[in-house]
Amino acid sequence: MSGLMNEYWLISAPGDKTPQNTFERLNQATKSGSDRLSENFKFNIPDLKVGTLDVLVGLSDDLNKTDLYTESIVRKTASTLEDVLESSDKGSFSENLRIGGDTPPQIYMQKFSWDLAKYPVKQPLRAIADVISKDVSHIEEELKTRYNKYNNLKGNLQQLERKATGSLLTRSVAELVKKEDFILDSEYLITLVVVIPKTTTEEWMKKYERLTDKVVPRSSRVLFEDAEHQLVSVTVFRLVQDEFKNKCRENKFMVREFQYNEEEIQAGKTELEKLNSDKKKKFGPLVKWLKINFSEAFVAWMHIKALRVFVESVLRYGLPVNFQAMLIRPIKKNHKRLREILNQLYGHLDSTALSGEKMRDMEIPGLNLTASDYYPYVFYKITLDMLDSQKI
Hints:
By secondary structure, this protein is an alpha+beta fold. Helices cover 46% and strands 15% of the residues.
C-alpha cells in the first residue's frame, strides 16, 4: 500500500464486549469511504500477573527507562552492523536486519506473539522486566567488547593502507624503492630520498648539487612520482647530511627519514598481510553475532512494549483485565484524520486528554508520558527509521 509511514502506533482500548469487537470497531472506523487511514494489526498480549497497584505504578516508571535503553541498543546494534558491512546500499543493508533469521522486524511486530518459553507468564511482571533488562545489558557489554576489538584492528589496517597509498609526503617509501637505488654499507656516503613538488623539478636539478658541499654530482634520480610530487634520490657525504636536510627544508624540499633495510620492509609487508587476514577472520563471526543480537534486542524491545501496554492498560482501565492491544501503521496523507478518528472512538475514556492547552503543564503520575504524547487511550509510537523506508 503506497503512502505507508515508517512509523507504528501501539495502542490499547478497553474490550468492547470482547477484545475482538474492539479490534473490528477500529477497523471499521479507520475506513474512510473506499480509502483506509491505516493498516491495523492485533498485538496479542497474554494474561500476565497483575500484582498490586503500588507495584504497577513503580514498574511503569522503570519500564519507561528500560524501553528507552532497549531501543538504544537495538539502534546501536543496527548501526554497528551497517558500519561493519561498510555498505552504501541501504536496501541491501536492511536485508540483514531480520528477526529469527528471516522475518523482517515490521512483520514480526505485525504478528507479535509472546515468547512463553523465554518469559513465562506465571512470573511476576517485575521478574520478566528484570530478565529482559539483564539480557539487553549483556548484549550491550559484548557489543562494546567485540566492536572495539574489530574497530582497533580496522583502524590499524587503515593506517597502514594510508601509508601504502597516500601522498608521497606521508606514504611509506619502502614500497616505492629498490635496493639498487641506494649506496649501502658505506662509511662515508649515504643516499637520501627527497619529495619535491613537480612544479619545482627544474629548480631541484639546478640547486641540489650546490645546497651544501660534498654532494655527489649527478646522483639524483627520480624513483617514483604521483600527480603532484616526485620522489628523488640524492647521495651526499654522511658528515653533511644534517646540513643538507636543513637546506632542503629552506627550499621547500622534504627529506623523508628512510634507511633501506630489507628485514624491516618485509616485516611491514607481513604486518599488513596479517592485519588483512585477521580482519577477514573476524568479519564473518562479527556480522553473524550482530545479526543474531539485533534480533534478540528487537524481540526484547517488543516484549518491553507489550509489558508497558499491559501495565498502563491496567492502570488506565482497571480490573478485571479487559483490553485489546493494537498496532496501527498510519498512511501518511491521512495521519491527522486518523488521530481525529481515534479521539472520536476513545475520547470518552479520558476527556482531559483532549483539552489541549490545559494538558501542557499537567503531570501524569505513573504514566511517564509528556502531555503531547498523552491520549485518552494507551499510546506508544514505534519508529523503524533504522531500516530502509523503501523496503518496509
